[in-house]
Specification:
With 171 residues, this protein is an alpha+beta fold. It has a single domain, classed as Thiol Ester Dehydrase, Chain A (Roll), CATH 3.10.129. Helix content is 35%, strand content 32%.
Length: 171
């Protein structure tokens, strides 16, 4: 179910991926649900609502649910989009809680072709890079509730393996 206006469509493969995510215990426990994964993995839509499992002490959505709902998605998108020649890791995150969440909110993860090209070019030259990507939860009227900035580490897989071997050598 698309939550944002898009021309993209889900495929059978991405529909199964969405179902897997939504039943995977670590993600399911955030209270969020992935509602849409485009067939090319360039767009993901997420919904999060207040209910007994996401409610905090003061009656709004727990900050951990807000962060956890957004946490793995850019990393997984980039792994799918870049392929096996790259290593992608979450490195750091910054969360700004703008206002308490007490209703259903939505987030959109969109990776454009230009960004993928920039990543490929930078990693081809530098062998690694770090990239900040933003995500936010907003309501149906566009009011923002939380902004999460994710720092991702992306490297050429062979370079990454060489660096790990160097670190493991004694002396």
């Amino acid at each position: 179910m698309k939550l944002f206006d898009t021309q993209k469509k889900e495929s059978g493969r991405t529909r199964l991926q969405r179902l897997y995510f939504n039943f995977f215990p670590a993600y399911r426990s955030t209270g969020a649900r992935i509602k849409f994964i485009s067939s090319d993995y360039k767009e993901i839509h997420v919904a999060l609502r207040l209910y007994w499992r996401t409610r905090n002490y003061v009656g709004t959505v727990f900050g951990g649910s807000i962060f956890g709902a957004l946490d793995p998605l850019y990393m997984i998108q980039l792994i799918k989009l870049l392929g096996n020649e790259y290593v992608v890791w979450d490195s750091k995150a910054k969360v700004d809680f703008i206002r308490p969440v007490s209703k259903k909110v939505f987030a959109r993860f969109l990776i454009e072709d230009a960004l993928l090209e920039e990543i490929r070019e930078t990693v081809a030259k530098e062998k690694k890079m770090q990239l900040w990507l933003p995500a936010q939860f907003e309501d149906k009227d566009g009011k923002v509730y939380a902004i999460v900035d994710k720092l991702l580490y992306i490297a050429d897989k062979e370079y990454y393996r060489q660096m790990r071997r160097k670190r493991k050598k004694p002396g």
